[in-house]
Amino acid sequence: MKVHFTELAKDQLDSYYNEHQQQAGLQLLYDTDGCGCSVDGVFILTIQDEQEHVDMELSSNYRPVGIESRHAVFLDEEMTVDFLPKYQTFMLKSDQQIINPRMRFVSRRENDGEET
Known about the structure:
mainly beta
């Protein structure tokens, strides 16, 4: 599986990677909180010091992206992460579908409680 980050998405993420965050990893986390069912979740993009339950890494044109392999069934072979300035949010899509039109970005770093 591959993830292509658009220039807008890379620029937005670069603003979160300062010299203290260079080692933090990106993860597509399948969030089911408040969804009622484990197949009704949505992906969120996280940056964190230690990735939770990651057992699969997706290649990308930006940085490697970790996921839980059990959630790979919800993803396509090639995907794009874009940034939508009008809504100040990310979008996860492929040629086959829009996986999450308003994907949240969450920083789960120890010294950073930021969420966008």
